[in-house]
Automatic annotation (TrEMBL):
Sequence ranges assigned to domain Thiamine pyrophosphate enzyme N-terminal TPP-binding in this UniProt record: 13-125
GO biological process: menaquinone biosynthetic process
Protein name: 2-succinyl-5-enolpyruvyl-6-hydroxy-3-cyclohexene-1-carboxylate synthase
One of the Pfam families matching this protein, by short name: TPP_enzyme_C
Involved pathway(s): Quinol/quinone metabolism; 1,4-dihydroxy-2-naphthoate biosynthesis; 1,4-dihydroxy-2-naphthoate from chorismate: step 2/7; Quinol/quinone metabolism; menaquinone biosynthesis
Thiamine pyrophosphate enzyme TPP-binding domain span: 436-550
Needed co-factor(s): thiamine diphosphate; Mg(2+); Mn(2+)
EC code: 2.2.1.9
Amino acid sequence: MSHIETLTKYVGHFVDALWRSGVEQVVISPGSRSTPLALLMTEHPHMKHWVNLDERSAAFYALGLAKESQKPVALVCTSGTAAANYMPAVVEAFYSRIPLILLTADRPHELRDVGAPQAINQIQMYGGFVKWFHEMMLPEANPAALRYVQQQAVRAMQQAQEGNPGPVHLNFPFREPLTPDFTVENIWSSGESAAKPPLYGTARLDENEIQRLVEILETGKKGLIVVGPQEDAELAHAVVRLAEKWQLPVLADPLSQLRSGTHTKDVIIETYDTILKSASVRAKLQPDFIIRFGAMPVSKPYLFLMKEYAGSDHIVVEKHAGYREPVGMNTQFVYSDPVKLCEALSESVPVKMETWLLEWQQMNRIARQVLTDDTGNMELTEGIAVQDILRNTPDESNVFVGNSMPIRDLDSFFFTTDKHIQPWCNRGTNGIDGVVSTASGVAASGKRTTLVIGDLSFYHDMNGLMAGRNYGLDLTIVVINNNGGGIFSFLPQAQEAAHFETLFGTPTNLDFEHAAGLYQLPYTLAADRAAFADALQESYNKKGMHIIEVRTEREDNVNWHREKWQEAEKELLHYLENSHA
């Protein structure tokens, strides 16, 4: 059998086994050494392929695809620094528990460490940021080799999804020539000969363990259910039913999937970040216990509450074994399917304290009234821009937000709604890179997507516009341009006047209309709320990508937010002092 025939069958069997294991999409960055993988992925009859020229953008694009589909997505690149450019997205995927399958082409062993061009050490190059690494054998086409390559495809899928999902890395050494021959017979494996994917069950507590948990919770009446960032669409109904039975408030993170949808929302406290900003308010809200589902919430005031009441019973529910508890509290971890746990706990109803829930509900109404009290104001602040996006975005759509200020404004101004709005953000490492590309990957699902992003984060990933434009994705990009790092104006660094602008403010002084022009995308500069609403509606009524810029002043933004928080604190304390009198 010739080298080309061997190469074709070896890689073909791998690609087919990967698809049979459940991989439906691959993002390919062009290169020479990866030719066998790229061509056979493209020629596979069932594999959907995307081409992204920039490996850094490609990896974040795949991250978005995997986020939205909740299925592993493959990545293919050539050897050398191409693979190194995957690193930022690999780190994000690892910490946000998103399954990616990294397929890097490499020089054969005789061309490593000898000064050959485009050759770097790719063995375990992602270190501890992948769940599994495997160096593939050089292609052979005997039955044992074909079984081996199929088994590695299945194992890659298994490792990416087992327990807490994450990225895995397979490194493929290839000798030249590299172009497969599609006239070869039996390129793909048959269903009978393919390796078998594993079957997974659901983890749940037994009756004795449920009773032990109930006994812990029965010792206190003032409990909090907290739902942080998580993607399980079924959890909302289960958590709400539990909270209604137990008469407990639910502090719902903006990425919790609880603030929008058809479930009832009377127990959901979406303004808890504003409520807890005041230390004086927190002093009146000591919980007896906290049950948390999902990752740690975005809210920093919630972190303060935990630190101030470290003696409260703290329970963290995870679907699989893991450790996400940054406060250092004495925590009871529960490893069980969250929906099944909620259903089981709903069967046992501890002593209710309805006044505790009523108090939180009234505080939520007060905070929401303060935050929305801009009825006649036509000025376009950053917080108002987020409110107007959520008001105008279509039902059954995605809203992707960047880190720093956009995610915090989403936390403050994403009020409960019956619309189905799926919120997204890269909260694994909270970085500002790769956001345009990740949002584009989310938009590739076909659902209208709105990206809210700061000017620095937009600048970091303007290359991400290429894939969105090439594939005609329905993506509205709202660039909140405060000419720099707006979040730093809220931090103590803002007092360092001598070096603040150079080191933290970091103004770019860029005209983003030119960026839109470079990629031939529609662009609008919105001067006020009316113009902004018109621009949003125009973008939603048309296909493709649109860029809308909103210009704000950093100092004005800080003052506007602080005035809101101070007014909320005043109203909340007035209510609490009277209700506790």
